[in-house]
Amino acid sequence: MPLQITIKKLKTKIECRAVYGTEDVTKARSQALATLAQSINIPGFRPGKAPANLVQEKIDTGRLLEETVRVLLPEAIRMAVNEHKLSPIIPPKAAIEKEDPLTVVLTFVERPSVTVKGNKVVVEKKEVKVEEKDVEQMLQSLLQEHQTSKTVDRAAVKGDRLVLDVRGEDGEDKPIAGSEMKDRPVVIGSKMLIPGFEDALIGLKTGDSKSFPLKFPEKYHAEHLQGKPVTFHVTVKSVEEVTLPELTDAFAKEKFHAESAAALKDRIRSAMKEQEDRIERQRREGAFFEALLKATSVDLAEELIEDEFQALVEDFASSLKEQGTNLEQWMQKSKKTAKDLDADMRKRATDRLTLRMGMQQLIQDKEITVSDEDMQKAIKEMMEPLEAGKRLELAPLYAKGERNYEQLKWQKMVEKVMEEMLK
Length: 423
What we know:
Layout: E1 4-9, E2 14-19, H1 22-37, H2 52-58, H3 61-83, E3 93-99, E4 102-108, E5 114-116, H4 132-144, E6 148-151, E7 161-169, E8 181-187, E9 209-215, E10 229-243, H5 249-256, H6 261-295, E11 296-298, H7 302-322, H8 327-334, H9 338-365, H10 372-383, H11 388-394, H12 403-421
Antiparallel strand pairs: 1-2, 2-4, 3-4, 5-11, 6-10, 7-8, 7-10, 9-10
Helix pairs in contact: 1-3, 4-6, 5-6, 6-9, 7-9
């Protein structure tokens, strides 16, 4: 009896039942025995040269059956795909249903039906503004890089830089761990230390000592000190007068290679605008993906989710290995259980598949394409910064039809969709 194949279409997948004839099974079993014999050591015979009956005695029947099915599967998959015009998007799953006659059930998953509600995803665009006060603040930061200072013999005023020895004591006059500092520079008015500390330094001279009570902020970075009273004891090692340079056209040209002070301000304003535009673009892209995920409706087969889940777990384990750790250590550190990780990964797998399917549907609905010329241009731009040897090494991977080529093409189509959707 020749191989017989029947298919049954289910909601999210196609079930294919392959029934094998005795002759096909016998041939496949012989081939399976020959393969397994390579790993069987039988005294008096070289690997793979022992008689089939002796090899069979040494091999578990279940293992032999699995290898036999592995030999038979390619033909069944080929026939199912060709005769029934199937388009699987992941390798089919196989399960032995019965041994006589040998019956194997193959589960194929094709691309499911996808809808994106309204066929559009709208993300609000916010107007990006750069405040003049922010430009001035950035300008002051640049000028501070070129400030000068000199030691003065007078009482400290706002803007002066003091070098201090500091220690802090709690409400019971006990030293606070980590509060003792030697030769700590502090600029009065910089607001780098807790409120009240810098103001308490005004009027001090070199050699002066002072003790003053304060309270740590309620949102202080060290939780155990939040809202706690503290008494600081400071000794002034030196007082320095800090002078910022005057922003003249000559100074702007010499230090920042700008035509004038006004041109330097324009450059700062432009750079800040570009940064704000990038931040807004990233915000809109994130909002777009969230909206697309919500707008996409797709019924995913469990086999598809499982395949994506396994890929995510492997990628995560590989990433942890590069960091010198593993899943078990990560779970201990993050206080996550295997169940927590499984649930998180499965949700991520489902969301990632849904998002990918939604993007594919948008690309199809909007008839987004990337020409061969565009691909060659993209590949050239990607390769240009690399050394000649590296370019030669990577070139075959980006030949048309290769995996890297198709991944880059997908990336370019996604970019086109984003450009259209986020105008």
